[in-house]
Prior knowledge:
Chain A is an alpha+beta fold. Chain A is about 30% helix and about 25% strand. Chain A is globular. By secondary structure, chain B is mainly alpha-helical. Chain B is built from 11 helices and 4 strands. Chains A and B meet through helix 3 of A and helix 1, helix 4, helix 6, helix 8 and helix 9 of B.
Amino acid sequence: MGLLDTLLGRTKPKQPNLDALFALPSAAITLEAAASLVPTGTGSVCFRAAEGRAFQDMERDIRELLDSDASKEAPPVEVTADSYGFTWLVVRQPADQLDALVTDVHAVNSSLADAGFGPQLLCSLIGFRNPGKPQSKLAVVYLFKRGTFYPFAPLSGERRDNALELQVRGAIEGELAIESDLSRWFPVWGAPGL
Amino acid sequence: MARTRYAPDRGLTARMGLTMFLLGLVFVAFVALLVGILTAVHAGGAAIVFFPVLLGLGLGIGSLFYSDKIALRAAGAQEVTPQQAPMLHGVVDRLCALADMPKPRVAIAPTDMPNAFATGRNSKHAVVCVTQGLMRRLDDPEELEAVLAHEMSHVAHKDVTVMTIASFLAIIAGLMVRFAFYGELFGGGRGRNNNNGGGQLAILMLAMMAVSAVVYAISFLLIRLLSRYRELAADRAGALLTGQPSKLASALQKVSGQIAAIPTRDLRSAQPLNAFYFAPALTKGQSVSNLFSTHPSLEKRLAELAKISKQLGQ
């Protein structure tokens, strides 16, 4: 924020950065090679619904769009609300088609941004799992406002597997813009589709 | 580029700009008058100007740099970790990610008065504090989120720094009245003893006292006006951040009703902190003139939020 904005008490709502998501599929290959983590085929978009008719209409349009163009084998879009009042749209594609998943997620994002609700976007999650260790889960979280990614590995009882997160950071650092400020790696406990 | 639904409130910006301009104008006029008086009388009154300015600067810088510690101490608040208050931290984390700002520290004050404040001179030193009473009454997490979004907008707008600098003039003018008054007492006595220029010095002191008092009164009113505008700006930014102006409105309504219902004795001790609070704790209900209050009236705030809600729905 500039000096004038500070003086006049203005905040410009931060517009999201949508394009960095497309770097994910190539990073996923590295992730599999380095940490034997494979995509689960589940991705989600988290946003803060605005009140009023306009947002509701747009939300319905997005769901119709995704449900209609999704291929026959893909299940429909799932909508859930979390305890913080944020809405999650969960999209599913076959596990080997990360490109299609990212395209779906991007469709949600750009619909929101086109309707003028880009500032409402919080983050996107792409799920990963380790076939050798069924209890180990990981999500690569994309922060729309920063244009950066961070890994989130939940353990039971609201603990995080920091070792795995840091290992993943090391593995994909070269391919994705990893959030450098660790205090912004906020936990998304119980995120749908994880 | 997508169209934006977050149109700035030009009227509010213009009024805020005008208020600051007037404050600056009063400051310039004040300095010019002082210089004029001092040169006209050729007297050793420089000390009367020098010490208040020095003291005022010291006070201003001190309160700016220690604002977080002072406010937390005064409220008896304790910083909490994510383990101690996971819900609160979760809300703050999400708001920071939405607004793309660094995460402030989070504190809880153990009082039952429902309120919240943000302090610290910039985002790096910011602390957001809520009272236990607020967390207990706002059982809907979205209302708590709305209040926190308002407080984080204060952080984003650097309101502590802006208001401290704006208050600087009033602090100096107030100190100068006091210095001139004591100078009159002691300097006047000395003047009678040696009967040499004493009358002149007395006039100098009286003139400075009068000018300072007028400047103090004007800048006091302007600062309060500025504070009300900045509250409205924070309401607006907070409501747009969450996209839920009505949640903020309902939180405001709940909190304001509760504050009026609380006995005055507790509230009086909280008054020095009022300027930083989410909603002020007034001791005398609504009878306090709007001119002197740090916050806009509840009706005004609700009306502004209703406008934003309408904009978002279109």
